[in-house]
Amino acid sequence: MDGDCRSDSLAGGGIDxxxxxxxVGGGVVVFLFGVSDVIEFFTGAWWKPPALIVFxxxxxxxxxxxxxxxxxxxxAGESDDMESGHAAEES
Length: 91
Fold this sequence. Notes:
The protein starts with a strand and ends in an 8-residue tail after the last helix. Helix 1 runs antiparallel to helix 2. It is mainly alpha-helical. It is elongated and about 45 Å long. The chain has a domain of 50 residues. It has a two-stranded antiparallel sheet with strand order 1-2. Helices cover 52% and strands 7% of the residues.
């Protein structure tokens, strides 16, 4: 059970709900990016104050990192068809 995010309180405890490992971190990063958008709305520009552009860059980096983690490692010769266990058929 290490690394699992399980909640027995959902649906009366009858359903086992497991969150992907990066779901909480990804949610936090997207929420913080939304906060940066609210700040941008009130300041009128994404570069004012200067710390806002750094904040946005950190958020975008986090979103990209979570996306890369979600995609997982992929070998050099592997195609998307091979992931599902079906080889690409040629006619």
